[in-house]
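P.,

For your records, the input lines for the assembly:
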Amino acid sequence: MAETVKLFVNGQEVEVESGKNLIDAFKVIGVEIPHFCYHPALGADGNCRMCLVGIEDGRPPLVPACKTPVAEGLKVQLDTEKIKKIQHDVMELELINHPTDCPVCDQAGECTLQDYYMTYDHQASRMRVPQVLKGKKMDFGCGVIHDQERCVLCARCVRFTRLITKTGELGIVNRSDEARVTTFPGRKLDNRYALNVVDLCPVGAMTSKDFRFKQRAWFLSRSSGICHGCAKGCNIFIDHNREKGGDDRIYRFRARHNGLVNGYFICDAGRLSYHQENEGRLGTTRLAGKDCTIDEAVETARRKIENARKPLFLISPNCTLEQMIAIKGLATARKGRVSGYSDSYIMEGDGDDFLIRDDKSANRAGFAALGIDTTLEAFRLALNEADLLVNFNNDLLRSEASGTFTEKLSALTVIAVSSHDNTLTRKATVAFSVSSYSEYGGTIINQDQILQRFTAAVVKNDPVPNMIEVVRLLGGPVTDDVTITKAMQDAIPVLAGIEATAFPTAGLNLKEKETDHVTA
Amino acid sequence: MSDRSHLIFTGKPFQFDAERDAEFEYLVKRYPSRESMILPALWLTQEQEGWVPGEAIAYIADRIGTFASQVYEAATFYTMYNLHPVGRNHICICRTLSCWLRGKQEIVDYLANEIGIRPGEISEDGQFSLEEVECLGHCGTAPVVQINGEFHENMDVEKLKQLLSGLR
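Structure tokens returned:
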């Protein structure tokens, strides 16, 4: 913890981090100050009045907690009758024109307004006049659907487009009870981060077209994960559910805060990339295009690898360090070549200066850390000499750039170990179906040299094996946790000084001096 | 306050005429940031056209270099900007607390029944248009009616009748 200050909450002395406002500082110690408009990434706006607290030092009787920094000796009152009355009144005002359509609202179950109603309000409506009617299911563009009646006018979404994306599509027009969030006609949301307003919205005013009406929030299991959409490695929540009679399935990704990597946000492409975890998968293990048991596939594949004079092992830049180590071990044992060539994953010029990167793979930096060659020259040379290609999930032909290999590939025997169906699995003699990143755990390094760990989120009814298990079945000598961990520590020495349980949740910055990480 | 968010687009491109253009460039130097020009630019538009069409809001945003949503916010917040064509005589009735308590509704009802215009509307002959506006700042002499920019205090239906007959 950084510097701390001591202050009083409801007469009780507490110690909190300095430099924060009351909301953030108290949240860490488990004291909630209700608020709608404040968000750490968007700053204090002070418009919702829900966070008003009392300070016993001769200041005005009430101050907004979002705009009040912690200070030594501050006496903060959160539970006086006056504060409760104000929270009660603010809630009553918020709910005057709220449609209270919770049963059909996507936000129900994760709605600030619902939660605060139960905690701070809990009264019957006294309104006997018609409510103000506003726009429903307005298509704001970029997959954002807006309901003006549910809105509490906290302006988080408006501030997001003005301060973060700097595109400013949203605004609050009119005033008083007619005020509403909208876009200027003909200038809808048009930025690559727009769906973050759905996360930011404390109520059900902003919903995602992609997620609407698919699941109730309380059915979803929220697992932590890392987006594999690009080399940024943004932290996400993987919200998934196994419906009765169905299989475990992902329904959405949401941004998960990590100050070291992505802050509070993720891009829309990454958010929607969960579809690729549900669809387009290589469902079954196949031998010459026909479904087969894994034993049959292993037998054939082992024979082919053993008989090959110059096998080439091609690795996906999305593989974890653990998987890469296992594959490298197999290649070394079989005297084969290893390549991480994957230029087809790079979309030159697509990245920006916020979160999106040109490189659409999650662990390219892992190749460098493990000394796996990724150059086109080496790959071409190896491919020309090879009599067998064992491809580990590398979607080599995903872009035009790799079209030059088609001819050579068509003459080559291919064994595919793949989570997804692609051109290489279709032409493979043997194709192993393996798990994808939402179903396994591992370690990856992002483009900024932040090493992160993630764990399995989704457990399928009929789980397919992790790639490492297939490597083991194919005779790979480095497939158990202990050996892999040892190999990883050899490649990245700083890891040796860190207990697995003490691994920093935000990840490890490999650019920093090693001594910074030693937890002696 | 009524919903003012429905902008009217004329289908014709908007730009300042030479006089307003010069005025805009003169005014812009007076402010520390270009965003400050939103309100003056809306006034210039209203001076030129009599009202503020949707195209003008986009024009102002682009000219200033700010978001259209921000100009849209200001134009819909302030009732002094007409977001639709107004009659030869534009009547604004204050609807804020003091005026409401002192009988603004009788005047609004009179106009609806006798002239046939509700807030936000224009009479068929184009003579009159009506808008309910927020506080005009003359609470001590409520209710207040503003006709073509001139204030008329302590109003009632009788006084309004006389005023309107003088305008016909």
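Two observations worth noting. Chain B has two domains: 18-77, 89-167. DSSP finds seven helices and four strands in chain B.

Regards
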